[in-house]
Amino acid sequence: MEAADEVPELIPRNGAVLVASGDRLKWLAFDCPCRTGHRILVNLDASRVPSWRVTNQVSLTLKPSVDWRGRDRRCHYLIRRGRVVWVTNKRFVA
Q1: What DSSP letter does each residue of 27-59 carry, written as one string?
Q2: Dist CA 57 CA 68 (whole Å)
């Protein structure tokens, strides 16, 4: 896949999709772990701001944290070694 619009409509629960152009990662897509139905799409292209890095594709590790804000919700977490670590009150909660 090369474009963000090529992300499949259904992503398996606890799964993620990497979008690449050749060997360059461009996007990471997954459904938010809060389970309220919103899709997260993070930019992995370092030439664009903001951008994130996938440092482990097998046990997904993403840096920096994801901080999604909606009208009535904030979802702030890290993904480390395939696990979600929630951030609450500026502290990490496993």
Answers
A1: EEEEE-TT-SS-EEEEE--TTSSS--EEEETTT
A2: 22
pLDDT(93) > 80:
no
* pLDDT tens string 60-88: 999 999 999 988 889 999 999 999 999 98
Contact 11, 27 (CB under 8 A): no
Q: What letter would DSSP give residue 90? A: T
**CB count, 10 Å around CB of 93?**
10
CB distance 45 to 53 below 8 Å: no
Say what the pLDDT of residue 92 is. 57
- Amino acid at position 17, single letter: V
pTM, two decimals, is: 0.84
Look-up of token digits 């370092």? 46
14: left (phi over 0), alpha (psi -120 to 50) or beta: left
